[in-house]
Write a structure and sequence with these properties.
heterotrimer; A mainly alpha (347); B alpha/beta (345); C mainly alpha (311); A: 347 residues; mainly alpha; C: 311 residues; two-stranded antiparallel sheet
Chain lengths: 347, 345, 311
């Protein structure tokens, strides 16, 4: 990571001497630039909130709190309520986050502990090729390939995930869901039958969509843990997993938590795939198999044809989604603050 | 490392700078680009017209993107497009918001059909009360007496009807709900006429393609799709009872009979929620192009009029193949007249 | 006894269980609870990783099977076909996606990285930093359709028409939070002793950032940029409100015009997958495959750049 090379020697020379006029003022300009972009970010978000609120005002003044607690969406009688959508958003995102974090973290640990490289190395050793100039590079190359494959999941467009969910996931899980509902229907989460799109297919596909985010960023966090911590643990006699659970994960926890919050944000705002898979029906139900609706899917489905009155209502729903995102992030920041109180000075 | 970064950066800025420079260079003399957005229903037909027209007049490029009738109207009011398209025409208050005025031109028409997935039943007749009842949630089984008495030779199963409706708001739903409201006062009360009515029953799928996929994979299902869709995907289509009490199959002659049965008014906004006539198919609709009444750019005006005239004459020949209804001759004449309302500076 | 521990992974030369070994003589015995726990957890992790690969292979397989049918060079050189036309391609959509994502990256990468430098380096504990971090996280939860609506109001209505520039701006709003937050994490994970060493040698803050922090954090930065690019390339809703679509090549009438609607792979997939014509649907799948391969290529180029700076 800090290998000495020609450019580094040149760097060292330019740092060591006193700053030139350009460098001094360049520094000031640079600091100003970073302040500028930081402020710009805040202004951007405020401007967006302002634009949305402006368009939502007619609806806010007309519907008020009833909008958040109401459960019917009837454009004909102008009764609008998004409680089912709020429920659907939280349920699908939390479920997807749970599944996605579990698997994403597993992949990140798998890659950071070099299981694959060790396995391939032992295979090569069995054949005697482990120091071969070409074959010997295989373990590292396979690990890099694996990492790229996982990140490839992030590149697949939302629409394709929706289509894959319809053609592959729903037929796949249908027999299991029918069986579980038949035998265990008294448990609320298996309460209804799977008629096609529903909460479970949506949550499964959503978790696959956010997994690359979690695994890629967690992997970076795990790899950034100083090797000496790991070696110190081994030196004291800890097994691999004891060192992972007691030393590595806590040290990397800030990065991993950041990844989870980022993924949660993505899950809350996911539009296209959920619009195709969640069933778009305004029911509140604990059942994993019942169709539901989310705020983002509501927006996607209704925006194109919305008249001027309906736009206000949709913008109100968008504002609620932003509000939920803020609340979730504030809760996350609070948890992080409490958890990291004793973490200073680790590095 | 820094040198490499700077090289990359300068390369990218060079390319972009070149692009921006080129964009200010002189263009061909009479090159015209027209941009349209709106309803998704006529999009395949319009795109075909525009591409064929471009083949005949290479200096005219017309682009059309389906964003929905509502968005099309919004863009028309905001003047961000050169023309728009809508399945639901344009309401008077929306027309008032467009300064300079809008001219509505019906360019083609289409039909909405009821497709079903019922193994072993190749032909199905649905009386009015039956299909209105299905979408109200009143008729729930395939062997309901209302359906059975219209299909005496068919063995209808004792299974539940799986209704499929649209999850997204659309002009197709608007027209279908308008028809249902016309034939059933109960439907008119609730859910009512809307691009996204609060259906009492049915699983929801996104888009015509979503309904088609649901119909294909769910036995005992019924749903409403555009005729062009059902025809291209070879779905089973039910014969519906029209206003005159006759059962009419979905076919071009029956569609054209419906269009002929309703006179096109002066403002070119003809609604056919329930057309009269023995041979008329009950659910048809026109679809309109929304043009401004004034275009400042003489080239754009000329190109627009050329494209529209092409659509009204040559273009109508491709309608049937794609599943749209060719306009009746009197309507074509009226639209050509209305073209004169669109002026230059 | 275990062999010499190598630098990268201490366990690289562990003997796999299942060989003929004398359990009593070894230090590492599965009969001991700690070792058993270790073994079970390793197995569980490997199993979960393989399970995580299954959807990937399934989706890629579906893309390859359905999209590979139509993949050929003609797809890159031809324009989108109409209803019952045979053949056709989406060359203009490929160019459009590259241009608009490139534009978005040009806006969001400097924005995001400089903001991240502020968050991690220039003012990490200030109140402004807390606010900026909160704003970035809120932005990350933004539904893509709202980015399009906002860009419509901010750019399209002001310039009076749909354009590729508006599309690029909408995409950059979606890319910004990922880049900024990941870059901040990457920069703050650089060991503080490197920072302190630079300052100790007399570097200004700008020099510390440019010459020490950013190069060291480059892999992390790249991860963030790649994730953001991957997401932006596949987003449809923002482009429907800003760049619309075009059935023609970028050069209209002999000049390149960024202020006109532009085609993109995402909108093409959205359009064609909704059509009842088989030719169009097949092209939609081929376009999805091309999109994924494109992002993979950009990813690989970025990684090779990153590796060259590490050597």
């Amino acid at each position: 990571m800090s290998a000495v090379s020609e450019s580094n020697v040149g760097t060292a020379a330019s740092i060591a001497r006193a700053p030139t006029f350009i460098e001094k003022y360049g520094n000031i300009v640079f600091r100003w630039a970073t302040y500028l972009f930081a402020w710009l970010t805040v202004f951007l978000v405020l401007y967006i909130v302002y634009t949305i609120t402006k368009q939502a005002l007619p609806a806010i003044s007309k519907h008020g709190w009833g909008f958040i607690t109401g459960t019917t969406w009837d454009p004909n009688t102008r009764v609008y309520g998004v409680l089912p959508e709020i429920w659907g958003t939280m349920y699908s995102s939390l479920l997807a986050l749970f599944i996605g974090s579990l698997f994403g973290l597993a992949v990140a640990i798998f890659l950071s502990e070099h299981y694959l490289a060790a396995f391939v190395f032992s295979l090569l050793k069995a054949v005697g090729l482990q120091f071969h100039p070409v074959w010997g590079k295989l373990p590292d190359q396979l690990e890099r390939l694996f990492k790229n494959l996982i990140e490839l999941l992030a590149a697949i467009p939302s629409v394709v995930y929706g289509l894959w969910g319809i053609f592959f996931i729903i037929p796949l899980i249908r027999p299991f869901c029918l069986a579980w509902h038949a035998k265990l229907g008294w448990i609320p989460i298996f309460g209804t039958t799977l008629s096609g799109p529903g909460m479970l297919p949506a949550a499964i596909v959503l978790s696959i969509m956010i997994m690359p985010t979690i695994s890629a960023i967690s992997l970076n966090a795990l790899l950034a843990v100083p090797p000496k911590l790991r070696e110190a643990a081994y030196g004291l006699g800890a097994t691999r997993w004891e060192s992972i659970l007691a030393i590595l994960l806590p040290t990397a926890s800030k990065g991993i938590f950041g990844a989870i919050i980022l993924a949660f944000g993505r899950a809350l705002g996911e539009t296209m795939a959920l619009a195709m898979l969640v069933g778009n029906s305004n029911v509140i139900s604990w059942s994993l198999f019942s169709p539901a609706n989310t705020l983002a899917a509501l927006l996607a489905n209704n925006f194109a044809e919305a008249g001027p009155r309906e736009i206000g209502v949709l913008m109100f729903a968008a504002l609620i989604l932003l509000g939920i995102t803020v609340l979730v992030n504030m809760a996350g920041a609070f948890v992080l603050h409490r958890a990291s109180v004793g973490q200073e000075g680790v590095r | 490392m820094i040198i490499k970064k700077m090289l990359c950066f300068s390369l990218i800025s060079l390319v972009l700078g070149f692009g921006l420079f080129c964009s200010t260079a002189d263009a061909a003399e009479d090159f015209v680009k027209l941009i349209g957005a709106g309803a998704s229903f006529p999009a395949p037909l319009y795109n075909k017209w525009f591409k064929d027209y471009h083949g005949l007049h290479p200096n005219v490029q017309v682009d059309y993107q389906s964003v929905g009738s509502g968005s099309g109207i919004k863009n028309c009011i905001n003047k961000t497009v050169d023309f728009a398209a809508s399945d639901a025409g344009m309401k008077p208050e929306e027309r008032a918001q467009c300064d300079g005025g809008v001219q509505l031109l019906p360019m083609t028409a289409g039909a909405i059909v009821l497709s079903y997935n019922l193994g072993g039943v190749p032909e199905l007749k649905l009386p009015r009360e039956a299909y209105a009842g299905i979408f109200l949630g009143k008729v729930t089984k395939w062997n309901d007496p209302l359906i059975a008495k219209a299909n005496p030779e068919v063995k209808l199963p004792d299974s539940a009807i799986n209704v499929v409706v649209r999850a997204d708001s659309s002009g197709t739903t608007f027209v279908f709900s308008q028809h249902l409201a016309a034939i059933s006062p109960e439907f008119a009360r609730s859910p009512g006429v809307n691009t996204m009515p609060n259906w009492a029953v049915g699983t929801r799928s996104k888009g015509n393609e979503g309904i088609t996929a649901s119909l294909r994979t769910t036995p005992g299902s019924i749903g409403y799709v555009e005729y062009g869709y059902a025809k291209a995907q070879r779905l089973a289509i039910a014969a519906l009872e029209n206003k005159a009490g006759k059962f009419v199959k979905a076919s071009m002659p029956s569609f054209q009979a419906s269009l002929a049965a309703v006179e096109m008014p002066e403002d070119l906004m003809a609604w056919l929620p329930d057309p009269p006539g023995d041979d008329s198919y009950p659910i048809v609709t026109y679809t309109w192009l929304l043009c401004y009444k004034r275009y400042d750019d003489a080239n754009k005006l000329k190109a627009l009029k050329g494209v529209i005239e092409y659509g009204l004459t040559e273009g109508q020949k491709s309608s049937e193949q794609l599943g749209y209804i060719p306009l009746p001759a009197p309507v074509v004449a009226k639209v050509k007249d209305a073209l004169n309302n669109i002026q230059g500076k | 006894m275990s062999e010499t521990v190598t630098h990268e992974s201490p366990d690289r030369v562990t003997q796999p269980p299942g060989d003929v070994i004398d359990l009593g003589k070894l230090e590492k015995s599965l009969r001991r609870p700690r070792t058993a726990f270790n073994f079970v957890m390793s197995g569980l992790t490997s199993l979960m990783t393989i399970m995580a690969l299954v959807p990937l292979f399934s989706v890629v397989l579906m893309l390859l099977v359905r999209g590979g049918k139509r993949l050929s060079l003609s797809v890159f050189s031809e324009l989108p076909p109409t209803a019952f036309e045979q053949g056709g391609g989406f060359g203009n959509a490929v160019v459009g996606t590259l241009v608009m994502v490139g534009l978005a990256a040009l806006i969001s990468v400097p924005f995001g990285v400089l903001g991240a430098v502020f968050l991690a380096e220039v003012g990490p504990k200030t109140r402004l930093a807390k606010v900026v971090r909160m704003c970035a996280k809120v932005l990350s939860g933004f539904p893509s359709i709202l980015a399009g609506v906002f860009a419509y109001g901010a750019v399209v209505l002001i310039t009076g028409g749909f354009s590729a520039v508006a599309g690029g701006i909408a995409l950059s709003i979606l890319m910004l939070p990922t880049i900024m937050l990941t870059a901040e994490e990457a920069i703050s994970m650089v060991p503080s002793k490197m920072r302190e060493a630079a300052v100790g040698m007399g570097a200004t803050q700008a020099q510390t950032v440019w010459m020490v922090l950013l190069p060291t954090a480059f892999p992390g930065l790249l991860t963030g940029v790649m994730l953001a690019v991957a997401r932006a390339a596949g987003e449809t809703a923002p482009l429907l409100f800003t760049a619309l679509f075009s059935n023609y090549w970028l050069t209209s009438g002999g000049r390149i015009d960024f202020m006109q609607p532009m085609a993109s792979l995402a909108v093409l997939i959205y359009n064609f997958s909704a059509m009842p014509f088989d030719n169009q649907v097949e092209l939609a799948w081929a376009a999805a495959l091309v999109l994924v391969l494109l992002v993979l290529m950009v990813n690989l180029i970025g990684q090779s750049l990153s590796r060259k700076t590490m050597e």
